[in-house]
Amino acid sequence: MSTKTIIKVCGLTQADETLACVELGVQWLGFNCFQGSKRYLSPEAIATIVGKLPPAVQTVGVFVNASAKEIEETLQQT
Predict the structure, then answer these.
(1) What digits encode the pLDDT tens for the residues 29-53?
(2) Of residues 53, 50, 38, 55, the one with CA closest to residue 74
């Protein structure tokens, strides 16, 4: 049985570091959507970075005690 290791890096804040992760083979990238975090990114900033990524890269948002509505609104903006 063959298994493939999947790598996710979270807490990214800059487009250049995000693209470097992709070049190194990272398949999943995480962005912090919790305003209390020093790594917080606005939905607009996330959208800018995600717009530079290849389609095969998966992205995730990190939320803390957010309502479903808040999460949905963030996803619509990104």
Answers:
(1) 999 999 999 999 999 999 999 999 9
(2) 50
